[in-house]
Amino acid sequence: MESKDFNTTLLVEATTQEVFDAINNVRGWWSENIDGSTDQLNSEFQYHYEDVHRAKIKVIELVPNQKIVWHVLDNYFKFTKDKTEWKDTYVIFELSEKNEKTVLKFTHQGLVEGYECYQICHDAWTHYIQDSLKDLIMTGKGQATPKKVEDKE
Questions:
Q1: What is the pLDDT, as a whole number, of residue 3?
Q2: CB 90 within 8 A of CB 69
Q3: Which of 3, 106, 136, 128 lies closest to 53 in space, CA to CA?
């Protein structure tokens, strides 16, 4: 049986420009715990969630109002035995218009059902795209993971 990458589709009453801009506002819909630029071609950013998940991501494609592609350069999950999960995978946002609405096709290429993290990642991406990003597009406020100030002693 062929592995299937995770994907989800969102249809919103917004322009492709509005959706494109919202996707690039990663701190507005995914997490405030991001360091680096998320909206410039060839820029790299770091994502972290407590001591559970860290990722280093590079923006490798940025076609205004059409497509955004991130390359996951490095990744760490505290809860998986396989430390290669997410490494060298691609997060793809493809935009198109349909009946005066915007269709966002989200694919995490390389995130497949055999992964230990698959169900957790499936549920998280579904929430972030279907709920948080949609809210950011429609209301101007997403449900991003809030900034955590880590204690430094």
A1: 60
A2: yes
A3: 128
**Residues linked to residue 110 through DSSP beta bridges, in sequence order:** none
Which of these, 106, 107, 114, lies nearest to 134 by C-alpha position?
106
Measured CA to CA, the distance from residue 48 to residue 54 in angstroms comes to 4
Closest C-alpha among 62, 58, 81 to residue 21: 62
- DSSP classification of residue 130: I
Quick one: three-class SS letters along 78-89? Answer: CCCCCCCCCCCC
Q: Distance (Å, rounded) from C-alpha 93 to C-alpha 13?
A: 17
pLDDT in tens, 83-126: 999 999 999 999 999 999 999 999 999 999 989 999 999 999 99
Assess contact for 31 and 50: CB atoms under 8 A.
no
- Quote the CATH superfamily of domain 5-139: START domain (3.30.530.20)
51 SS3 class: coil
Return the pLDDT at 148. 74
Name the one residue in this structure whose structure tokens are 């096709």.
105
